[in-house]
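Quick one:
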Amino acid sequence: MPDQQAVIGLISDCPLQRHIMQAAIEGYGFAVAANSDPARIDKEFLERYMLVQAWVVILADEDLWSEAIDALIELSEAPILFGLGEAPGKHSPEYAKWERRLYSKLVELVGEPETLSEHVETLNDLDSLINRNPQAIPLPHHIRPATASDPVERVVILGASLGGPAAVKGFLDCLPVGLPAAYVYAQHIDQNSANVLVRVLGRHATVKLSEAHHGNSLHNGEVVIMPVDQEVTFDEDGAMFFQEHEWPGPYGPSIDQVMLNVANYYGSKVHAILFSGMGNDGAIAGPLLKAYGSRIWTQTSESCANSSMPDSVADTGCVEFRGTPVQLADKLVKTIELEELSKRRRGIG
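Output:
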């Protein structure tokens, strides 16, 4: 990974396109040094922005600006990204895919931004950043305490990137013992940091944290951390199956793919909470799961270290609740309590 932010330059003849591009690129942790109309391109302009490591060009009228683009190609030593296509509106179903293509192309040109994933040093500092003596929410008396051997009736996917571990820890530390839910945690993280994540996040939590293992199943009161470098699916019996390939897309693990793979077995029993992070992982699968009855929640923007990811998911219109980590934990407990009361009234369970 690079030691500092990669510097990107943007060229477009449409102010709205420049705005969308800059928001997307900065949301991934790249630095935008130049954001310009093609009319400004000349030798002096390019000398001013000689530190730009890659240019992204989106033009509505390429013929009109052919001379300016020729000058950019001739005078700039930095690679130039053409052909990305016009950026859709942020609420368009195609936006997340467009943004993902943009990120993938930039990674090919300048490498992955250093700040996209969490590092061991950050994880080890978690206790100094959040409450050392958290108070778990009491288990409501309407909820029968679940054990690991009871059938899993709901799975909550926890998706996070930059700033996510602190938020997820704050959430897990509030959960009561015996809450009938299993958890799948997809965190963009250094490949060798999963064991640190288990240790640090499990320090005060009432749930059990463990890394995913081939052949294991999900259980109530347990948080399974997805691997960074291998896609995990579920077989016909609900056992985790480690594929021989990496997760699709630019992230590991892919939160979108985790959501889809878990839902492929558990169906509408799956729900998802997206915490702090860069990028837009989860924005593709979120609306799909919502359409099949899943609840999609996110952390509030102001409580995130970086709100790009939860905001991107919320922008799709699939999110029904946003809260701080503590509020999300409280909402989960109350939601399960209402579900259990409803089942009792209907004579189920």
